Amino acid sequence: MHLDHTEVETDVIQLPSPTIFPMVLALGISLICAGMVTHVAIGLLGLVLTIWGSVGWFFQVFPHEHHVAVVVQTEEVTIASTRTLTDRLPAIETQRAILPVETFHITTGIRGGVAGGIAMVVPATLFSLLKYHSIWYAMNLLAAGGFVSWAGASDSFLGQFHLQGLLAALIIHGVVSLLVGLLYGAMLPMFPKYPIVTAGLMVPLLFTGILYSALSIISPILNERIGWFWFVVSQIAFGLVCGFVVNLQTKVRTPQFRALPFATRAGIHSDQITRPSKQNGQPDEKDPSQ
Amino acid sequence: MMATQTPVHAVLDQTSTTPPRRLVLEVLHDWIATVDHKKIGLMYIGYALIFLVVAGLEAILIRIQLAVPNNHFVSPQTFNRLFTMHGTTMVFFVGMPILFGFGNYLIPLMIGARDMAFPRLNAFSFWISAFGGTLLYFSYLGGDGLYGAGSAPDVGWWAYAPLTAHAFSPGHSTDYWTLAVLLSGIGTIGTALNIVATILCMRCPGMKLGRMPLFAWLYLVMSMLVFVTVSPLTAAQIMLMLDRYLGSHFFDTQAGGSAVLWMHFFWIFGHPEVYVLILPAFAYANEIIPVFSRKAIFGYPAMVAASVGIGFISLSVWAHHMFTVGMGAGANAFFTLATMVIGVPTGIKIFNWLATIWGGKVHFTVAMMFAVGFLFQFLIAGLTGIMLSAAPLDWQLGNSYFVVAHFHFVLVGAILFMLFSAFYYWFPKMTGRMLSERIGKWHFWIFLIGFHLTFDLMHIPGLLGMPRRIYTYEADRGWAMWNMLISSGGFIQAIGTLLFVYNMIWSYFKGAVAGADPWDAWTLEWSTTSPPPDYNFAKIPTVESRRPLWDLKHPEDPDSNYE
């Protein structure tokens, strides 16, 4: 920032001149409104003020805008900081490189979500067939969350084919599968050693737990009639297939990769990172096990 | 500790330090005729503070009426007028003006400009809003009413149809409300236009959009929202006037009109209005939290994106106020999801403020204490908002005191707390005097206790089924103890507010001299004197980073090296 008094060329500054006409115009319009609820004379007074204010304002800016000259004088002011001089903490250049240098492409998550969503249909249809002798029951049950009129639907109604049920279930299932697939694509690189176990078992169980506690609010009809065993099975099917498909894809490099030294990017040197020790700020020895 | 002292050549008015005593009329004329953004900003703030006291007194009367069961402290008619005037005043004549006041005062200073883009329009916008408020309260004196007994509006701040029809609202009380809000709307749009033009066209050299203070960004988004949301309200007011004066039937259900149409018009204004009010509070937090954490704001680009995101999403949530109307499952699902989605950018903001505080050298001045209170209370308000966004829960809790508690957590717990913070932070710039930190801490703690006593507990009678706007209640409902505690909290808040008013008056005359930059801050308003001269800056500054004063104070490590 520059603030240099030597650059001040004049000792006056032109500012817009004060004027009462904006206030007069505002008062005029207000009195016109007030006239509607009080007396016509008030409205007429408002009209006069409105015309006076408008004309006065017009001549404030036409043909030339009125200005007032304000005298200025430079004076030395000290701007002081109580802060000490900046002293940056010791940090090595590659510290930021602990951000992932590779991740999955966004389409990976979409593919995983689509595959997982298809896999999930199998146990859901089995549940329908074995318990209600109809392949449409689970689909309609899912769709019922979106239709208030289906809240009290009978089992036989839900066992029949309904085009609107199919469309609603497709939208709900498709959107949720895609979103969860995207989440998997983003999260799988962060999981520890056994991503398939985490993605295929832990996350579905966690998700089931959350849904178990919230389903009565999200979809009361689904909550009443859902078979939780089959639900867990279908979630695991989704997790395993989605995780498998995601892991099959090739990772792409993130912008962090470009920040690595050329020798590392070229594969000549390892990209292993040395990190400062918490005690003395010195880099630790590289851990040979990593 | 080493202190860096950088001599800066700033400018000062040459006016003598002991000016000759001026006549009251001269002073009055100066203020009435002024087009200076700083004076207009101060007039906005002063006018809003007067209405804050008035609306606060109305709230106290409401709480006295509800403190005990079977109470008849005021009549039912008076009670209806009280909550109508309280809501209308707080939203249109306290919230909007005070936020515009701070914006008016600070935006040109922060972006290195000498005034707003349209100074005369600025004055006009203030005066028409002020006259709107005056007209509203003139209804107590001038309204002839059904029995000629004075008729302030009594239709609630939302004025649902068909309650506003001539058949149910005879006399002029509703007309006063309509006209006052209409006038306020004209002023609001004028000021919003001014803010947008000023920010887009009058930034100083070097201040690209990406270097602009977040304060200005938030006001830009807020002003854009005003364009989109106040216009439907103004249109609806005109339609209502046509219904009442010329016999049209926009909202007359018996003649083919639609009462639900009014609800849509009102809430497409009403809910984004909450964001119009809260975005400036975010703006203050964006400036105050970093300064007192001694760190640059965390995630500037994400904060900008979240602000713009909130602006857009807030336009698609209005009908969550209408879940009980019976809109159908599709609309309910859409507005539930949209309302929940707005939690995402809002959450980003909260995390970024926390990340700014995290690891910082936090100075717990009164301004920072109020800002921390804001963070905590806004989080609670957001969480109850998420609860209410679920249509099934809203069917149970809609129009109950739970909703009243929720939005007061937003309006008082978040916005008013951040406004208090802003007063403690910028009062030295506006007056040249520091507010007393000692009295300020008393103010903070007393107000905090009163706030939580009132609004934490207010959720409970709501859950127990107490409807909002209820005049009185039977003793066997189980609400009596809660209401007594809630009303007690209201009085404690009033004591805290009185302390604040006393602090401002005392400090204005006796407070410590502030100097140009009492907080060791980083934005341009602190580079000029306190209060600033008429022209703000003798030489328009050139900036090279988001924290121009930091660069000036720390030439060894300017931000421009990293941005």
TrEMBL record, chain A:
Transmembrane segments annotated in the record for this chain: 20-37, 44-62, 109-130, 135-153, 165-184, 196-222, 228-248
Keywords: Membrane, Transmembrane, Transmembrane helix
Endpoints of the signal sequence: none
Name of the protein described by the UniProt record: Uncharacterized protein
TrEMBL record, chain B:
GO cellular component: plasma membrane
Pathway field: Energy metabolism; oxidative phosphorylation
Top-rank EC class of the record's enzyme: translocase
MF terms (GO), sorted A to Z: cytochrome-c oxidase activity; heme binding; metal ion binding
GO biological process, one term: oxidative phosphorylation
PROSITE patterns linked: COX1, COX1_CUB
Record keywords, A-Z: Cell membrane, Copper, Electron transport, Heme, Iron, Membrane, Metal-binding, Respiratory chain, Translocase, Transmembrane, Transmembrane helix, Transport
Catalytically driven reaction(s): 4 Fe(II)-[cytochrome c] + O2 + 8 H(+)(in) = 4 Fe(III)-[cytochrome c] + 2 H2O + 4 H(+)(out)
Alphabetical list of InterPro entries matching this protein: Cyt_c_oxase-like_su1_dom (IPR023616), Cyt_c_oxase-like_su1_sf (IPR036927), Cyt_C_Oxase_1 (IPR000883), Cyt_c_Oxase_su1_BS (IPR023615), Cyt_c_oxidase_su1_bac (IPR014241)
Main location, first listed in the record: membrane
Membrane topology label: Multi-pass membrane protein
Residue ranges of the TM segments: 44-68, 88-109, 121-140, 176-202, 214-240, 260-285, 297-319, 331-354, 366-391, 403-427, 439-460, 480-502
Keyword Cytoplasm carried by entry: no
One Pfam family it belongs to: COX1
Family: Belongs to the heme-copper respiratory oxidase family.
Annotated function: Cytochrome c oxidase is the component of the respiratory chain that catalyzes the reduction of oxygen to water. Subunits 1-3 form the functional core of the enzyme complex. CO I is the catalytic subunit of the enzyme. Electrons originating in cytochrome c are transferred via the copper A center of subunit 2 and heme A of subunit 1 to the bimetallic center formed by heme A3 and copper B.
Protein's name in the database: Cytochrome c oxidase subunit 1
Protein species of origin: Granulicella rosea
